[in-house]
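Hi all, posting the design record for the shared folder.

TITLE: backbone redesign
STEP: 1 of 1
STRUCTURE INPUT:
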């Protein structure tokens, strides 16, 4: 009999489901898209029911996948999910309004309210500053602007938690996702009564907490029948998308970091100590690995910058767009790109800063600009690595996933600029694979996630730093660091002229 687990990754634009065997190989996959609503500028919302229907549809496609062995069974399901989104539930555990997503920016006033109420205690407790993307400001916004809706609220959950609730009938939130709410005492792994009291919120709003590998029910019989998945099928809590991305890349020990370039970019490091304090310069969250933590910095305009440049160049495919970039030396012919097209998160937390090319010359060609974009994104991610080094962290190697791992020239740029070996994955599946690994560990296939990673995660080629190129980037990086301060006031002054600008 062939046994499988399913990893479900609930993203911002689509859900992806993976059917994974005991050898870590993907037997089938399915995805479904769903709409995103922006009823006002800066707002970002989705219907939670769209997530549920898309997930059930994807599960049904998995069960009907061709080529599966006779008598195959699924032992467990787990989840990865977009962080921070607010799903406010009423008495019947039904959503009272559309979910407010991680990329919604309406809550600046509420962030200032949190800072006034808690001061430096916020960082002491939650290890993260008050930012618009987090869940607590969204709760306060609903209380202020939709008081009747808030009064009906009985509990809040995050996006994947709502999908799991609908699949099992059981209400839980895992620690790795709870860490992104600004309501969790991160080092002590519990809801913070101090934060709740300071903002006059009731503890009953917070759901029960569990580890990412904890079983949180079984698939409801009617849904098992609808998706043609035989039960009882065990369902496990799962984790935040970045925690699951780290698990799926095997980032499960000190000294390793993950570079992930999607729409935004992340430089993430495993943390074994709960007391490490970066003073809010990077995020610090509970890991999906029991008892562990991870820290990370975020570049808002990573892959977004590359897709913008692709669109600007008339929609060339990526092979054409990046052709010739590997033949150029570091520095792109004296050209720097600051990838602040959507503001920046780490290390500046500045929603108003905007991007720039610095050093444009009449001799620059498409390949110079393309390489500058790759370098600029990598420089921005290097800001986080610099914070780690300044804190005395010994980061020895990096695993690269996402768009930045699909191009060998970009992987070499990362190795040269970071000054560290950079490894790509042979079987990159991102957070979905991490979710499947949580199910595999929960089912007892492996004694721990590290053993699971040894079987599931397959690392490919490693790119070593080239001494001359690495030396050049050590000269260029301080110049890049000057761009933010040099353009900050310019960006602010130009801000009012951007009103009505369509976002691609």
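Okay, here is what came back for every position:
SEQUENCE:
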């Amino acid at each position: 009999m062939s046994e499988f687990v399913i990893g479900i990754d609930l993203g911002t634009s689509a859900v992806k489901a993976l059917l994974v065997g005991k050898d870590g190989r993907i037997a089938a996959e399915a995805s479904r898209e769903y709409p995103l609503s922006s009823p006002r500028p800066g707002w970002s919302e989705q219907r939670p029911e769209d997530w549920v229907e898309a997930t059930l549809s994807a599960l049904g496609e998995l069960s009907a996948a061709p080529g599966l062995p006779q008598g195959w069974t699924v032992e467990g399901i787990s989840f990865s999910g977009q962080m921070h989104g607010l799903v406010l539930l009423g008495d019947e555990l039904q959503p009272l309004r559309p979910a407010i997503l991680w990329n919604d920016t309406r809550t600046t006033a509420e962030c200032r309210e949190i800072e006034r109420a808690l001061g430096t205690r916020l960082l002491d407790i939650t290890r993260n500053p008050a930012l618009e993307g987090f869940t607590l400001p969204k709760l306060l916004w609903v209380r202020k602007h939709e008081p009747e809706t808030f009064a009906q609220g009985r509990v809040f959950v995050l996006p994947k938690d709502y999908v799991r609730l609908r699949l099992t009938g059981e209400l839980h939130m895992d620690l790795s996702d709870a860490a992104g709410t600004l309501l969790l005492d991160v080092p002590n792994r519990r809801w913070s009564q101090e934060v709740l009291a300071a903002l006059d919120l009731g503890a009953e709003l917070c759901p029960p907490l569990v580890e990412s590998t904890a079983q949180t029910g079984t698939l409801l019989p009617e849904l098992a029948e609808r998706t043609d998945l035989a039960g009882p099928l065990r369902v496990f809590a799962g984790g935040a998308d970045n925690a699951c991305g780290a698990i799926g890349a095997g980032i499960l020990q000190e000294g390793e970091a993950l570079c992930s370039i999607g729409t935004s970019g992340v430089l993430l490091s495993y943390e074994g100590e709960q007391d490490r304090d970066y003073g809010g310069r990077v995020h610090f969250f509970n890991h999906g690995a029991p008892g562990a933590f991870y820290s990370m910095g975020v570049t808002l305009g990573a892959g977004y910058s590359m897709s913008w440049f692709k669109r600007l160049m008339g929609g060339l495919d990526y092979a054409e767009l990046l052709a010739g970039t590997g033949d150029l030396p570091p520095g792109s012919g004296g050209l720097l790109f600051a990838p602040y097209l959507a503001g920046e998160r780490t290390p500046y937390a500045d929603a108003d800063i905007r991007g720039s090319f610095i050093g444009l010359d009449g001799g620059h060609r498409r390949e110079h600009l393309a390489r500058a974009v790759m370098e600029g994104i990598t420089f921005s991610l290097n800001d986080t690595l610099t914070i780690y080094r300044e804190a005395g962290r010994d980061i020895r190697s990096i695993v690269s996933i996402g768009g930045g791992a699909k191009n060998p020239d970009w992987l070499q740029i990362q190795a040269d600029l970071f000054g560290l070996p950079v490894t790509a994955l042979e079987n990159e599946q991102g957070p979905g694979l991490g979710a499947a690994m949580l199910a595999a560990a929960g089912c007892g296939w492996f004694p721990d996630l590290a053993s699971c990673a040894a079987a599931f995660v397959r690392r490919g080629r490693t790119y070593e730093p080239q001494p001359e190129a690495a030396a050049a980037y050590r000269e260029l990086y301080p110049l890049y660091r000057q761009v933010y301060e040099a353009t900050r006031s310019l960006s602010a002054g130009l801000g009012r002229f951007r009103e009505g600008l369509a976002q691609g």
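COMMENT: The chain has 17 helices and 24 strands.
Let me know if anyone wants the other runs.
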